[in-house]
Amino acid sequence: MNLSDNTISTLFFDLDGTLTDPREGITRCIQYGLEQVGRPFPRQEKLVKYIGPPLRWTFPDLLGTDDAELVDAAIRHYRQRYADVGLFENVIYDGIPELLSALHGDGFKLYVVTSKPTIYAERIVRHFGLDPYFDATFGPELNGRFDDKTELVAHILCERDLQPGRTVMIGDRASDIAAGQANGTRTLAVTYGFGSLEELTAVGSDTICHRPAEIGETVRDPSRWK
Hints:
Structural class: alpha/beta
CATH architecture of the largest domain: 3-Layer(aba) Sandwich
Order of helices and strands: EEHHHHEHEHEHEHEHEH
Strand content: 5-15%
Shape: globular
Helix content: 40-55%
């Protein structure tokens, strides 16, 4: 791939809602976390909106409290089930392996950039056989460092010495797009995940794709970028 100064060369892929559909595992684990601390839990369909944000933001809302001890207990129970069961209650979106194989073959640098802790994200990427396509997988630490995706993206750009203008942040939620924008990357929103078209339009993503195959077409087409 011949690169000019402004040619896209690096792609940051969100995980949940962009590469895989973790709906079953995450919602069941949230229910389990709430149940284990003695709280009632919503039906799974009511919990879909919590897929994406860090658990330290999710459980205070669901518990209706900022009590750190209670929130930490719910997170521990969530992670207990997630590490053994929930992590694999997950399916890869149709077309993702083919997309990643083609992009990798074309010379793009690919990274997973997720709000899921790295220790879990790496297992999922390996489970689906996607690890050969990615240079690295980045997420928060279990202690909460890099829960803020804007901070995470800044860290990766610095650590890997990447040029923001030649990097695209790809994700399904407004927080993904906002994190890229705050760090000067280009942004691509996908509508097949958990963010609504209204949410993604409002945040002002550079471009929007409705299926995985469109991502490849878009990053190769200079006319699609502002």
